[in-house]
Amino acid sequence: MQKLISYFTDGIKSRTLETVGAEIETQFIDKDNGPISVQTSQQILAYLAENGWGVTCRKGHLITTLADKDDNKIFYELGRHNIEVATAASTPENVVATVQQCLDQVYEAGCVAGTYPYFAPILDGDEDLLVIPDERDAMWLELDGRAALAPLARTSSVQFTISVSLPEAINILNKLRRQDNMFLDDFPQDRVWKKYIRDSFAGYRMDRYGSQPELESFADYCQTIIRHDVVRGTSLVPFSNVPEVDIPLYLRSIWWHFRLKRYGDALCIEVRPMARGMDERFHYQLQRVLDIVRA
C-alpha cells in the first residue's frame, strides 16, 4: 500500500484549481434518430483528420484517436456512435471555451457526414453498439460480458478533472462526496452503472462504483482502494497478490464518482457524475464543481 500512497504524494507540486481538464461524451444519431454506424463515425473522424487533427491511434483500418496541436484529443467512448472530446489541461476561465471549440469542429464533421449530436445522457434502445478500439476495452469485454457492458455504450457524461494541492486533496474529496446526492439528482446513468456492476461476469464488489466513505488521510483513501481486486487479463486478483501493479490502469478500473489521478507532478481529482445535456450547461456544471471546491 505504501507504493500507492507514494504514487499520489511523492513529488507533487500542483496547486488547487491551477488547471482544469474536461471530458465530454457526445452520442450521434442519424436522420431517423437512430445511432450512427461505424462507417459514419469514421467519416467524422476522417474529416477531422483532414482538417487540423492528427491521427494518433488506429485499430486495423479504423481511426480511433485524434489529437490537435494543443494536445486536445478525440476518440471513441465504447459506443460506435459515441465520440469523446478530452481537453488538455487549461485554466478554470478557459476550459469551457476550449471544450466548445473542439466540439464545434466535431459537430461540423458530423454535419458533413449527415449526422446530429444527441444532447442527452442516455440513448434508448436495445441494439448492441459496442466498439472496441483497443486491447484494454477488449479485455473488459471478455471480463464483463457483452450483456453487462453494452448498456454503458448508450450513455454520455461530462467530467471535469481539477488540480489540487497535496494538503487540500483529501478535504476537497470529502467536500465533493458530501454533495454526492446533488450530483446524482442529475445523473440518470447511475442506474445503468449499478446494473453493470451487478450483471458483470467479473464479480466486482458493489462499491467499485459509487462514492468512497469519509476520509482522514491518503492512507485511508488507499486502504479503501485496495479492497478492490486488480484486473489481470480477464480475471480479478487480490491487490496483495499482484507484485507489480500498473497503478494508473488499476485506478481507472475503480469507478468512484470522485477519484484521485496523477499527471506528472500534478495531483488531480476527477469529478465524474455529470450528465450530458445541451452545451450551454457546461458553464453551470463546472461552476457547481468550483463552488464546492472553493467553499
Could you explain how this protein is built, in words?
The chain is globular. The protein has eleven helices and 13 strands. The strands form three sheets. Strands 1, 2, 3, 4, 5, 6, 7, 12 and 13 form a nine-stranded antiparallel β-sheet that branches. The chain has a two-stranded parallel ribbon with strand order 8-11. A two-stranded antiparallel ribbon has the order 9-10. β4 and β5 (79-86) form a beta hairpin. The longest helix is centred in the middle third of the chain and has 18 residues, at 95-112. The protein is of the alpha+beta class.
Keywords:
single chain; 295 residues; alpha+beta; 9-stranded antiparallel β-sheet; 13 strands
H-E order: HEHEEEEHEHHEHHHEHEEHEEEH
Helix content: 25-40%
Q: How many helices?
A: 11
Q: What is the molecular shape?
A: globular
**Integer average pLDDT:** 95
> Which structural category fits the helices and strands?
alpha+beta
> Could you give the count of β-strands?
13
What is this structure's SSE topology?
Elements: H1 2-9, E1 20-29, H2 38-49, E2 54-59, E3 62-67, E4 73-77, E5 79-86, H3 95-112, E6 116-118, H4 135-144, H5 146-149, E7 158-164, H6 169-178, H7 180-184, H8 190-199, E8 209-210, H9 218-225, E9 230-232, E10 235-237, H10 247-252, E11 255-256, E12 258-263, E13 266-271, H11 281-294
Parallel strand pairs: 8-11
Antiparallel strand pairs: 1-5, 1-6, 1-7, 2-3, 3-4, 4-5, 7-13, 9-10, 12-13
Helix pairs in contact: 2-3
Quick recap:
The protein is of the alpha+beta class and 295 residues long. It has helices at residues 2-9, 38-49, 95-112, 135-144, 146-149, 169-178, 180-184, 190-199, 218-225, 247-252, 281-294, and strands at residues 20-29, 54-59, 62-67, 73-77, 79-86, 116-118, 158-164, 209-210, 230-232, 235-237, 255-256, 258-263, 266-271. Strands 1, 2, 3, 4, 5, 6, 7, 12 and 13 form a nine-stranded antiparallel β-sheet that branches. A two-stranded parallel sheet has the order 8-11. A two-stranded antiparallel sheet has the order 9-10.
